[in-house]
Structure prediction request, 358 residues.
Amino acid sequence: MNIKERIKELNVPSLFTSFGRPVSTKEDFEALKPDILDLFQREEYGYMPKAPDSVRVEVIDEKKQFFAGKGKNAHYRLYATYEGRELSFPFSAATPNYTGSKIPVFVNIAFDPTPNFRQPTTEIIDRGYAVFTVCYKDCTSDDGDFENGVAKILGMDRSDPHATGKIAMWSWCVSRVIDYIYTLDIFDHDKLAVIGHSRLGKTTLLTAAFDERVKFACVNDSGNSGDALSRGTAGETIADITKRFPYWFCPAYQKYAGNEDSLPFDQHYLLSAVAPRALVIGTAKDDLWADPKNEFLALTLTNDVYKLYGKVGLIHPEEIPEAPFKLQEGSISFHTRLGNHCLSREDWNNYMDFIDKF
Ligand code: GCU
Prediction:
C-alpha cells in the first residue's frame, strides 16, 4: 500500500488548514494546541477533569530486596482532593535499587491489579526501569456506572453532550500517579513513559496529549479512537465502538457513528498533540480489529508537526512494510510484531530499546 496515495484517497482533514489559521511555526502550533485538545474533549472523550487541589500517597506495604535483591516492590494508595471531596485508588511500584543515577520510569495503566504476563516486571527491573502499575478498574469500573470510584466525584451529568467519559477518567488517574512521581527525585523525569494496551492504549494517548510530563507515550494496539485513523478503517468503526462502549466517550461522539467523514478531525490530530515528545507505537500483524495499517497511516501524518520542532518524526519507506518490522530511527517508534492483540514481552522490549537510545 502506497502511503501517500492511500492518504489522498481517505481525504483526511489537515490541522494545517482545518482551523482556518496559519500553522507554519512551532509557535503557531503551540497556539493551536488548546483548540485541538478542546475539539477532542467536546466531540470524543468529554471534558478532562481539572487538576486536583492536593494529592497524597500512603504506603500500604513495602518489600526491599525483592526481585532477586535488585529492587523494591511496594503497594500504595493515592488520595486526591477534588473540589473539597476526597477520592482515592491503589497502585503498586516496582523500583530497581537506586545507585545514584536517576531511574527511568513507566506508568502502566493496566488491565490487572497484579502484574502478569502483560507486564514482565523482573525483566523491566533488570533493564533498569521502574514500573508503577495502576489497574484501571481500581479507578472506576469499565461500564456505564458513573457512581463508583473516581467517577462518583469526577463525573458529570451524562445528559451533557460533552460529559467526561471513562477513558478521560482513567487518564486523569494516570496523571495523579505522575504528580506523585514528580515528588520523588530518584526518578528521571525526562524518561517518564506511560504505557497501556488497547482501551488503555487509547487512555495512554489521551494522557500524553494532555500531560506534557509524559515524555514517551507507549501506545499498544490502541486501534479505533486511539492511534488509528477512523476514516477508511478496515477494522472497528465508530459505530462499533460507541455501540458497545458508549461510556468510554462523551455522548456527542455518537453522532459520528456511520458518519466518519463528518468528523472535524481524525486521530492523527491527537497523535500530533504529543509532539515533539516521543510517540512509541506498537501494533500486531493479526490485530485486524485495531487496523495496523490505519494506525501506521495516522502516524505518518504527524511528521509535519515534528518538523516544526526541527525533529524527524517517523522515518519510513513509501510503502507500509510487511510485518514484522520495526522503525526506530526518528523521534517516533513504530513496530508491527507477529501475533495478535496483546501487550507482550516483545512489545515492552521494543519500547525499552527505543527509550534506551535517548
Ligand atoms: C474491544 C474494543 C476495542 C478495544 C479492545 C480492548 O475490542 O472494541 O476498541 O481496544 O476491546 O480494550 O481490548
